[in-house]
Amino acid sequence: MRALALLGSLLAALLLASAAPASAHAALRGSDPADGAVLKSSPVSVTLTFTEAVGLLDDSFRVYDPTNHRVDTSGAGHGPAGSDTARITFPKKLGTGTFTVAWRVVSADSHPVSGALTFSVGKPSATAATVSAGPVENPLTGSLYNIGRYVAYLAMALLTGTVAFLAVCRPPDPAPLRTPVRTAWWTLLAATLFLFVLRSPYEEGTSPATAFDLSALARSASGRPGLALLARVALLALTAALHLHLLLRKRVRRDLPSSPSRPLLAAAAALSVALALTWAAAEHASAGIQVPLAMTSSVLHLLSMALWMGGLAALLITLQRSAVPLPAAVVTRFSRTAFGAVTVLVVTGVYQSWRGLGSWQALTDTSYGRLLLVKLAGVTVLLAAASQSRRWTARLAQAPAVPAPERVPLPVGGGPADPPAGRQDAPRPDEPPATPDEPGATPDAPGSTPNEPGATPKQPGATPVGRHQAALRRSVLAEVAVGVAVLGITTILTGTLPGRAAAEAAGSGTAPAASAGIPAAVVALVPFDVGTPNGHGKVQITLDPGRVGANSVQAVVFGPDGGISAVPELRLSFTLAAQKIGPLPANVTDRGGYWAADSVNLPIAGEWTMSVTVRVSDLDQVTVTKKVRIAT
């Protein structure tokens, strides 16, 4: 269990590390005017078209003129083509020059997406507004939101799987599973409320400090993802009400059967399906192609995952904490249930992978495909562990049942107790205890038990059943550990742009939505050599966003061995000889392992000459140059 806690912490750290910037699930298919277009007259409106339906925010569009002043526009709305478009209109004609449009919307599967584009009226300006679309999300907000989603998945699996294990497998001692069920219910409720509170900051890319604003909570409640979270809270309240109703009935009528009735099972199944729908309605399945089939597949996929992984956790807890030996029939019932769940999981997983990828090439060419390969590798390991568990289950079912040894209670004073009725080999109070020289005192004497005087206590797992249960417990623990890891990968996968959407955007000549309309950052690798032993290497320089206006600069120096090298001085400047501009110093400073400048203004597009001066000692330095292209 400590290993599982450590694994969960590592996965949480992985989610934190991968949260910024997150990839959105909608991609910009095109725009009118097109990015970079030069128009003869002022446009009446700007319309963006996406690969799926999008939701609009209060500040979805910001338009800036060539002097970096914001242009008045109408409120954002959907265009005539439908909900996969976003549109604004201009109340009056624009002037001439280059205008910048920054936008931010929420894709149908609940993830925010942002970008920027430019168009020119008359002719392009010498300079353009320095507007960045900003990150898709605030790093801290995104990290907390992803952790909340992961915890909600875990709690859903434990709650649904444990209840199903109790109902289907019917362990003789359900007491150890009561605490996990309550813990899972409270955890799922807390995670759902946590996600609802963070929903508005997550959509708008703001810090968690804005979460408790009343207007932010109202916005969360008005969108489909927020409504799905509220529906989940309502369903959890219904499950609690059903549980309380059963407890009250048992107190009033003690003759109720211990096994659940068919109406109760039907109600539990309906609530489980409804809970799974709250995920499907706000994630991948709710957008794209074949939405009804995808929603059905997503619900079945989530429920089968919960039955398998949650049931495994319940089986592990029962094997470790049950006060009575676990009958082989219980393990056999779970093995059959898990086999059915795995079958459904594989079928629905194949369909969802096809739907998300769209082509074999996307399996290796997109982040979604590469993450999917990692998940498939994890699932393969998980299936191997499950196969081992099935073998131990079969051996446990075939092993002869061994009755539990009879325990003879001792009185408080420590003297011998009266023998149970019908027992012939128990010593009477007036008889002296057996010694090792007497018959029946040896460890191998027939009929001796761990509680008899002279008998050697049996070690746990000494019987075939005990050995098989111990091996099964280890195998199930391995399954649970791998399953927790696979669930973490799944959580990250649901926050990644599907390969089909990326291919569709690329086919239309538009970059993915997270950077739509924005040129990729300029990365230049500049070799240098001061002419001394070990005085050579490379400087990797990144200009972000690599366009006209303010750019952040990061420079990393690599030594001759390819590792990061610390140098006493690094200088950087930019010159545009064609326009007789420069040199413009970058004023980079040592940030502990790399050099950086927060803002370097490059006012005109074109091919700039970047001069890099590297000093490796008090006497040895060299200046090298590199051409870089700055876009509009």
Q: How would you portray this structure in words?
A:
With 632 residues, this protein is α+β, with helices and mostly antiparallel strands. It has helices at 2-17, 139-169, 178-204, 214-222, 224-252, 262-280, 291-321, 328-357, 362-365, 367-398, 464-493, 499-507; strands at 28-32, 37-39, 45-50, 54-64, 77-79, 82-89, 97-107, 112-121, 522-529, 536-544, 549-558, 569-576, 581-585, 589-590, 595-602, 606-615, 621-630. The protein contains twelve helices and 17 strands. The strands form four sheets. A five-stranded antiparallel sheet has the order 9-10-11-15-14, with no helix packed on it. It has a four-stranded antiparallel sheet with strand order 1-3-6-5. The two termini are 56 Å apart. Residues 3-24, 132-136, 404-462 and 507-520 have low confidence and may be disordered.
